[in-house]
Design brief:
Layout lengths: L4 H8 L37 E7 L4 H4 L11 E3 L5 E3 L1 E2 L12 H8 L30 E2 L6 H9 L1 E7 L6 H10 L10 E3 L17 E5 L9 E4 L8 H7 L4 E4 L15 H4 L7 E2 L4 H7 L6 E4 L16 H13 L2 H4 L2 E7 L27 E7 L7 E3 L3 E2 L2 H10 L38 H5 L11
Parallel strand pairs: 1-12, 1-13, 4-5, 6-15, 6-16, 10-11, 10-12
Antiparallel strand pairs: 2-3, 6-14, 7-8, 8-9, 13-14
Helix pairs in contact: 4-9
Length: 459
């Protein structure tokens, strides 16, 4: 099915917004609750009693793991003129971003031709007085030397190379899918929140914010519109955890990550005592690991400079992730009872060659599914050096959590995908040892006492 020409033309004229978040005025720091010691795991399958989900930002699989041995990657792609474009190395800390709103997906995907990346807008964030160095292109990949901890973790444990971003836009909706298997659309209005709110602090905490929606009853593609207040009330996996008598925390930076902090857009969480489980700063997880006070379920989002988000990132995002993994992996108290999943919330506008078979379930689905994002599974019971080629979407993480803790599904995308268990062997008699990855000299103390990055997240 091809969209009308005016739809593509309209989107080409847009300035595609990036992956949002933000803090600033209106944010309310939360007090860290007094935790209780972590329980010891039980059960014949050796399922973990702790799951830690680390959410990084804005990278396609071809962009972040290009050339990884055995993985499905490409070194070139087609542009809209039918020309072959070799992928160029682009540093993780490049000073430009690539459009990755819903309209950018439609243009880049181009009805399955996968050749529209030369049409994607490229905002430039070079320091004042300087211009972005050429070439500024979405046909790029991050050199292995910039992401050594990721490659080391993938080599020790398991890497999935066919995980589709569940949504087709930027971060706000993507983070909703990671806790709820949806971003709306299951109500009478059938409106799903799409892209990012019109303020970097949008969520239940800012009463003047709005977010565009997509009518999930209409065919692909759509133009986001019909804005609503970005504060929904659907059930999340966090609710399922509490109903089971278990615990959760959402570790998030101090004041600058509202759009990345998914529970802040859930009314019955944000406007209730449960909001105490939204913990700032995100480095508190390192303290909780050291004190053996992790909850059963942890989500961790980074500050902007550690996020891997192009245009804003330093080279320390992989060191940050590696430091959290090292803290768990080198602690005998946690290593055999904790699974860490690292995922990137959206493709960030970067080239990826893998056709998404959009839409998977129904040709009328206007918003699911997007391009590939990387996923690393870290566990004493992960399949060592395994590359999982199973096509799935990233709500498999929610289904994994449900399976591990014996929870019902939410009845959304999580009920229609797999549970990542092909990446593990929880019945193995020989748990894998953990070998600390190289974090460039960074330690838990380095991150706990670093100067906080208070910039609003790209939106």
């Amino acid at each position: 099915m091809k969209p009308a020409g005016w739809v593509v033309a309209a989107w080409l004229a847009l300035v595609m917004s990036g992956c949002g978040g933000g803090g600033g005025a209106g944010s309310t720091p939360r007090v860290v609750a007094t935790p209780t010691p972590s329980p010891t795991p039980t059960g014949p399958e050796r399922l973990p009693s702790h799951v830690v989900v680390i959410i990084q930002e804005n990278r396609s699989f071809d962009n972040l793991f290009n050339g990884y041995p055995g993985a499905d990657t490409a070194q070139s792609g087609l542009n809209s003129r039918g020309q072959t474009v070799p992928l160029q190395p682009v540093p993780l800390n490049a000073e430009f971003d690539v459009g990755h709103a819903y309209g950018a997906f439609v243009v880049e995907y181009n009805n399955g031709a996968m050749n529209g990346w030369d049409k994607a807008p490229l905002p430039c964030f070079a320091p004042s007085g300087h211009s972005c160095p050429p070439p500024v292109t979405a046909y790029g990949y991050v050199p292995k030397s910039d992401v050594v901890p990721y490659w080391q973790l993938a080599g020790q444990f398991a890497l999935a190379d066919h995980v589709l971003q569940t949504s087709e836009g930027s971060s706000f909706a993507a983070h909703q899918y990671l806790i709820a298997g949806q971003s709306g659309g299951g109500t009478a209005s059938h409106k799903a929140m799409a892209d990012d709110p019109d303020t970097p602090t949008g969520g239940c905490n800012i009463n003047h914010a709005t977010v565009d929606t997509i009518d999930m009853t209409k065919p692909y593609p759509q133009i986001p519109g019909d804005p609503i207040f970005p504060c929904e009330n659907y059930k999340t996996v966090l609710d399922l955890i509490l109903a089971k008598g278990l615990t959760w925390r959402y570790y998030t930076p101090l004041g600058n990550s509202q759009i990345w902090t998914a529970p802040m857009a859930i009314d019955h969480i944000w406007n209730s005592p449960e909001a105490v489980n939204i913990v700032t700063p995100e480095t508190q997880i390192l303290t909780d690991i050291a004190n053996h006070q992790l909850p059963n379920l942890s989500y961790v989002v980074p500050e902007l400079s550690l996020s891997d988000h192009s245009g804003y990132a330093t080279l320390q995002g992989p060191d940050w992730v590696g430091t959290v993994a090292n803290a768990i992996g080198t602690d005998p108290y946690y290593w055999k009872n904790t699974t860490v999943i690292v995922v990137w919330d959206d493709w960030g506008g970067w080239f990826d060659h893998y056709a998404t078979h959009h839409p998977i379930d129904s040709p009328s689905d206007p918003y699911e599914f997007g391009f590939r994002v990387p996923l690393i599974a870290i566990s004493a019971y992960a399949k060592q050096g395994y590359i999982d080629h199973t096509e799935r979407d990233m709500t498999s993480i929610v289904r994994f959590i449900e399976h591990v803790f014996g929870l019902p599904t939410l009845g959304q995308r999580d009920a229609k995908t797999d549970d990542l268990f092909s990446m593990f062997s929880y019945t193995s008699l020989s748990p894998l040892p953990y070998k600390a990855v190289n974090t460039g000299g960074y330690t838990p103390a380095s991150f706990r006492f670093r100067i906080i990055d208070t910039r609003d997240v790209d939106y």
